[in-house]
Specification:
Layout (H helix, E strand, L loop, with lengths): L1 H67 L3 H11 E10 L5 E5 L1 H14 L4 E14 L2 E15 L2 E16 L2 E18 L5 H9 L1 H8 L3 E4 L10
Helix pairs in contact: 1-2, 2-3, 4-5
Length: 230
Amino acid sequence: MEKRRENGQIVSKAISFLLKNIALMVVAVSLVLFIGGRFELASATQPNAEFEIQQLASCYSLGTDAIGRGNLLEGKNIYRKCFTQDAVLTAIFPDGASETRYGTDSWADFVSSVFQGNGYTATQHLMGTINISVQGNDATMTSYLHATHKRSETSIDVANGTYEDEVVKKNGKWQIRNRTLKLIDFLNLSSPTTNSSSTNARTTNSLTTNSESTDSESTFVRPNIPRLKH
């Protein structure tokens, strides 16, 4: 009888041990599956985040070029898709001048006043060399700018620089919270003037033809930057 009781206790302990180990194994497997699933989800979402953030650069260009062709309202509506409501935007020009605006409507008004003040009839903003770093719901983005501003059929202003952006994700949507444009140049390019005497000279001298046909006027232009009234 005593022996049977001891055997029963041993069996009971063995069953209890097995149940505990099975429970631990179930917990371990669940954790692996959960963590693995989270990792795969993060890996799958990362490219999507970078793509969505990259689209913000194009969004801004489209808004700016809408303003460049004279449609300020369209530009403002597009800007609101790219930026947070409390966005801060700064432009630093090659001569050291700078301008900071708070909110996209204020920035759109500033852009419009610059374009109108310089007599631009159309603009085209190209973005490239886009570099993005994502950390959770925050990200940074840098992108290179090449912008053409049309003054006339024979004269354009060309700007090159770098945008530095702080980007956040709110309510499932990425938007720019802080943008700084650092311009490295702002030049005017105009077609060279041609007259009859220079045309005759070019037809009789091949060296002159080679040098004059490739000649163009390139001068630094200090943009007409409207200032805030203090």
